[in-house]
Automatic annotation (TrEMBL):
Catalyzes the tRNA-independent activation of glutamate in presence of ATP and the subsequent transfer of glutamate onto a tRNA(Asp). Glutamate is transferred on the 2-amino-5-(4,5-dihydroxy-2-cyclopenten-1-yl) moiety of the queuosine in the wobble position of the QUC anticodon. This is Glutamyl-Q tRNA(Asp) synthetase. A motif ('KMSKS' region) lies at residues 239-243. Keywords: Aminoacyl-tRNA synthetase, ATP-binding, Ligase, Metal-binding, Nucleotide-binding, Protein biosynthesis, Zinc. Its EC number is 6.1.1.-. Zn(2+) binds at residues 100, 102, 126, 130. One of its GO terms (molecular function) is ATP binding. Gene3D superfamilies: HUPs. It comes from Ramlibacter henchirensis. One of its GO terms (cellular component) is cytosol. A motif ('HIGH' region) lies at residues 11-21. L-glutamate binds at residues 8-12, 44, 183, 201. ATP binds at residue 242.
Amino acid sequence: MGAPYRGRFAPSPTGPLHAGSLVAALASWLDARRNGGTWLVRIEDVDTPRCVPGADRLILDQLARCGLHADEPPLWQSARSTMYRQALDRLIADGQAYPCACSRKDIEEALALQGRPRVRGREAPYPGTCRNGLHGRPARAWRLRVPDGIVRWQDRRLGPQQQDVASEVGDFVLLRADGLWAYQIAVVVDDAGQGITSVVRGEDLADNTARQLLLQRALGVPAPSYLHTPLVLGANGEKLSKQNGAHALDLSDALRTLNEAAAVLGLPPQAGTVADALTAWVRQWPFLQSAGD
């Protein structure tokens, strides 16, 4: 029998929640409740230059107004630097992480010399320039040494998934040149530290899964199951985001706003109170965790 279900909603405090982020929050809460588990909130604020003062507290207030209450006190990633450092030191000691001296311009020039021009809208894959040493240049960042081979996993909504991380992404950053911790290591360390068994998040983050699986293997920590939810699209057909004109949630009628989020998840509208609606959606939530997850 697997570990008791533990899920989380992990917003970045770059502004208030919008319609897209509420879909992910509602889905993760419903999945935890439907599977008889624990639901946590983690404030992912390691990218401090992008964080807006007070946005973390505003997000917690928005969740509460929607009836989404965490079962344990929230965790802030900005207080977890020591844990990320310990994880990186372990990877370095095991030979699985190495220093990198490359700037973005260096990477693009190296790829061009290899006949691999950058694809617009996609991060340039790292060409491995510093894999075998810095050659006298000063270190700027630390990277994970990615093994060759296809990474495969089963998404609870999207089905079978795979990615060749070595060729599509390359050795990815763990500690950035500006001294900030990269998203991948912070998420993996905190999911392991909080005992997360099930990750429910937006489909735009599905591309991160293979890298996180590799990092979990490198650190010897369990891999959670993954469920990626449908995205809310803006007027231009792209993912709704703060950079794409997303407005803060209108919670003057919280039930109406929750009904709009539920519709994206394929759930029927509800009347009555917010609590009544949440109770109904828990019963109707289709993604019951299987014994093998």
